[in-house]
Design a protein that fits this description.
The structure holds two protein chains of two kinds. Chain A contains no helices and eleven strands. Chain A is mainly beta. Chain B is 0% helix and 54% strand. In chain B, 33% of the residues are buried. Classes of the chains: A mainly beta, B mainly beta. At the A-B interface, strand 4, strand 5 and strand 9 of A face strand 5, strand 9 and strand 10 of B.
Amino acid sequence: QKEVEQDPGPLSVPEGAIVSLNCTYSNSAFQYFMWYRQYSRKGPELLMYTYSSGNKEDGRFTAQVDKSSKYISLFIRDSQPSDSATYLCAMSAYYGQNFVFGPGTRLSVLP
Amino acid sequence: GAVVSQHPSRVICKSGTSVKIECRSLDFQATTMFWYRQFPKKSLMLMATSNEGSKATYEQGVEKDKFLINHASLTLSTLTVTSAHPEDSSFYICSAREKASGRAYEQYFGPGTRLTVT
């Protein structure tokens, strides 16, 4: 079993749809959780980060962490074609530890 | 926000030559810099971690003599691919962790360097 798993997609949705992106993980020690967005041939950019369990909202984006299920989600409301990218989850167990990345989910938002 | 630059963005070199890629944190001091490799439609593969002024820590399977990493200052790290071969062709991405306390778990990525070895 891989340490972090993510549905690779591609996931295609119509503009305006609510998108749910998910990662599961096996290491119960993880407590820092990040979501990155990567456009084609570009470096990843940090979208959201959360510590431990709970929800965090930033504009159209909401990150959820369920540590009991070892499951994290990123929700995108009112999706736009500009949201078309690969979304990577990343996590670490303690301050300063290297991140473990998921393989990424390719999202296409169709106009 | 924190900005990380990479230079060059794209490089083509002949087999057997060496290529140097620079990674700079433009508006913050980076305690740690990371080098990743990414194949098409694949996730990031961590190659090595470097702290300013000390030797890099390489991930298992990464040849330290082939991928030379130097982290000379809190704003600059370099990756040199020595004696490049076509199989070294890839997208290389660096990232930097900010020194400021309370945010050290965030990593900021550079735009990547596309290396093609002919």
